[in-house]
Amino acid sequence: MQRAIEHRGIPTVSVTVALDITEHSKPPRAVFVPFMMGHHFGVPYHRELQRQIILEALDHLVKAEWSGEVRFLPITWAQARREGKAIEEAAGRMT
Amino acid sequence: MTAHSDETKQLRPGLWETVNERYPGSMITKDDFVPLAPLRKPLSESRLTFVSSAGVQPKGTMPFDVGHPVGDYSFRRVPSTSNPSDLEIHQIKYPTHGAVNDLNVIFPIERWQELAAESVIGGLTPNFFSFIGYNMDSERLERTLAEDIAEAVVADGADVALLAPA
Asked: Residues of A with CB below 8 A from B113's CB?
């Protein structure tokens, strides 16, 4: 899919949570996040994290130097969940 | 490739092998890399599209066939101006508990709208594109769905594309 779009002259980047699948399918550019499937942009209500992952992907789109280059983000799923839980608790206290 | 697959970094290491053992031939393996397409203008002037295998679709459109043994090779257009409340997920192959509370964890449409409003990106294509990731015939996927979506992305005037294989 990504390769078909890139073939048409449109630069592409994907956000992946499955590094082995990415290595086999060889998309032009990818950003790997070590998150649970279905949670590529983080956790609910964590707008900053969702935004950060998008901005990293866009930055990789601009800066990647060779096809197949994967960027790794210094984020853990445990950290994302902790932050998400804190956000939900704070919102709960405010309501 | 900047690094080989590091199993300690993955929540589900060996996913490719597991799926490929259960459903031989369903996974895409490539030996070559496609040439990188250059950016034609700065991101702040580029129109972005988003392609997702999350099975997100506007309410009222034909639900994806999540029960078909070989998969569903159709896609849906999701207007980029949609509110999350306009959308629903038809997909049973990945955990959706996060997305049920906040669709942006898998389909960050509100973040895209914000980034476009802030001119971080030049704008959004009229539509985003969504399909389901459960497609067991990889050759058919590449021959039909991938080409169909690529053509639709071009027709929508995308300058850059971000994809999220759910």
From this structure: none
